[in-house]
Amino acid sequence: MSTPCTGWDTGLAMPNWARSLQFRLTLGFTVILGGALLSVSAFAYATTERKIDAFSDEISVARAERLDQVVADSYTKNDSWVEVQDALVQVSRLYDWRIVIEDERGLIVGDSHSAFDRNPLLSQFFLQRPVVVGGVQMGNFFIETGEAFVAPPGSRSAFIRELANGERERGFGDPTGLQPPPTRESGNDDQHPVSDIALAAEPQLSELASSFNRSLLLSGLIAALAGIGMVTFTTRRALAPVHQLSIAASEVARGDLSQRVEANAGSELGDLGLAFNEMAGALEDSEAERRRLTADIAHELRSPLTNIQGYLEAIKDGVLEPDDGTIDTIYWQTKYLGALVEDLRLLALVEAGSLRLELVESDLSCLVRDAAEAFRPRAVERSITLELTARAGMPIARLDPTRIRQVVSNLVENAITHTPEGGRVAVTVAPTPDAATATISISDTGTGISPDDLLHVFDRFYRVDPSRNRVTGGAGLGLTIVKRLVEVHGGNVDASSTPGSGTTFTVQIPFSGPPSDA
Questions:
Q1: Which of 37, 32, 27, 46 lies closest to 223, judged by CA?
Q2: Residue 496: beta bridge partners?
Q3: Distance (Å, rounded) from C-alpha 120 to C-alpha 199?
Q4: What DSSP letter does each residue of 114-164 carry, written as one string?
Q5: Phi/psi at 480 (5° precision)
Q6: Cβ burial 425-445 (10 Å sphere, 16+ → b, else e)
Q7: Cα-atom radius of gyration of the chain, to the nearest Å?
Q8: pLDDT tens, the chain, 518 aa long
């Protein structure tokens, strides 16, 4: 079996370059350019032909009038047809016409081709035109024109055949010009005087039209080639950012998330390049976060598992007795693992948008008070004052009580944990001035959080004090879960702190519930 050529699609049998955007743009612009050139050329050609035809008509009328004037002057001067032959010969040489005149009796009185070695014309038909002298018709012109020469106005006539028959009867030979004319001899000069003025024949209008058409075709071809070259260059320059984006996107698809492209805002492709850079940066950050998260999860799981494994191996080897203290330690390690796994599951559900809220009409003041009161024994144990303040007459809120209770519990527990003995933790609930949102504030008088750490307190597995014990300090997922649960209710959470003076977490929950019921 033969291998298909590289760069060809075996299904469509079309080369890759023929499917490229540059080729299609170039082809499209070329078609448009060709159509425009053809349209302009056709219009110019048609206009030129009309102008030439009109000019030809004007020339034919002017020539006919000149012929009439010359013949009329000759007849008026001599009061006869004696010198009309000379006039016919001059006009014939100038216009390349064969001119025959018959008088009012039908007799031939002049024929420009009866002598003087004129080349015969090919047509067998004449144009008939009256000879008018002094307003009186004295006979008729019969004019035959050469090929591609301007013909005078007149009616078509077959007089040449009658003329040929009449000339044969009179013995004048072949006046049709189909036979070689008689040669000019010196003895005939007086009989057929000719003007000594050399008259040059006028150029043919057909040659002018042909020359114009050739020039038009040549200029059109040159313009088309130049246009195609400019279109190719322009599209190549214009699509260079797209080519760079394609290469960078391919590298990103292979896993190289450090790819960036040069982009300047202000144009569509520039904005696209900036969007690609932002996307690549977000993907790179997300990949770094994923790797960090994987490492953090492995680290969080390894410590309690190692502890449990160590205790079990010690009991198995007889080093430790399975007394209450040992079992209690293993129990708390196992409980920590269960809480960590549950937190990870909950966080995954929230971030995936799969967490379903059980929304009900609830009294937010009572809900917050109940959640905070659960920690009063622990506060009393550490001599910490727990203050609860709730504004009376608050609107009923639409929320998931279990999740909001979890939010308040995490924040109160953190506040008590980070507040030294003898400190104070204050929990307040109040509506905003527009009565659309409830504000829950949890403040403590602990050591506070530095500005650098404050930026990351809602990040997963982030601890302000990395050396803190995991059992007392948690895994660093509590605040992350708080933030996600508040956001899924359509609210937001913020933290402010002054190092050495304490920290305040502020949660805002809309009374109307999330934008769409989860």
A1: 37
A2: 504
A3: 19
A4: SSTTPPPP--S-EEEEEEEETTEEEEEEEEEE-TTSPPPS-EEE-HHHHHH
A5: -65, -45
A6: bbbbbebeeeeebbebbbbbb
A7: 54
A8: 444 444 444 444 556 666 666 677 777 777 777 777 777 777 777 777 787 778 878 888 888 888 888 888 888 888 888 888 888 888 888 887 888 888 888 888 888 877 544 444 545 567 888 888 888 888 888 888 765 566 777 776 655 444 444 444 444 434 333 333 333 333 334 333 333 333 344 455 666 667 777 777 787 788 778 877 777 777 777 777 777 888 888 888 888 888 888 877 777 777 888 888 888 888 888 888 778 778 777 877 887 888 888 888 888 888 888 888 888 888 888 888 887 788 788 878 887 777 888 899 989 999 999 999 988 988 999 999 999 988 877 889 999 998 999 899 989 988 998 899 999 999 999 998 888 899 999 999 988 888 888 887 887 776 665 444 444 445 567 888 888 889 988 999 999 988 888 899 999 999 988 886 54
Taking a C-beta distance cutoff of 8 angstroms, is the pair 343, 477 a contact?
yes
Residues ≥6 apart with Cβ < 8 Å to 421: 382, 383, 384
Which are the contacts of 428, defined by CB distance < 8 A and separation ≥ 6?
388, 389, 390, 439, 440, 441
Q: Tokens 């080897």, residue?
A: 317
252-256 long-range contacts, CB within 8 A, separation 24+: 252/280, 252/283
In 3D space, the residue among 443, 485, 503 whose CA is nearest the CA of residue 356 turns out to be 485
Q: Report yes or no: 476 and 463 within 8 Å, Cβ to Cβ.
A: yes
Sketch out the chain's domains with CATH numbers. 13-185+200-238 (no CATH), 268-350 (1.10.287.130), 356-510 (3.30.565.10)
Longest dimension (CA), the chain: 160
Which amino acid is it at 422?
Answer: G
Q: If residue 369 lies in a helix (H) or strand (E), which one and from where to where? A: helix 364-373
470 CB burial (10 A radius; 0-12, 13-18, 19+): middle
Using alpha carbons, select from 428, 285, 299 the residue that is nearest to residue 368. 428
Residue identified by tokens 């009038």 is: 65
Q: Scanning the structure block, which residue is given the tokens 């799969």?
A: 354
Q: Strands (DSSP E) along 57-114, which ranges?
A: 97-103, 108-111
Residue type, 286: S
- Looking from the CA of 60 toward its CB, the CA atoms found within 13 Å total 19
Strand pairing partners for 503? 497
What torsion do the CA atoms of 316, 322, 326, 330 make, to the nearest 10 degrees? 60
Which two tokens mark 79?
A: 């009061």
Helices (H), 382-469: 401-417, 451-454
Residue given tokens 């300047």 in the structure block: 264
d(CA 173, CA 265): 92
Pairwise CA distance, residues 322 & 124, whole Å: 137
Chain-centroid distance of CA 8 in Å reads: 26
Measured between alpha carbons, how far is residue 454 from residues 451, 497, 499 in Å? Answer: 5, 8, 10
DSSP H or E stretch at residue 115 = none
How many Cβ atoms from other residues are within 10 Å of residue 423's Cβ?
19
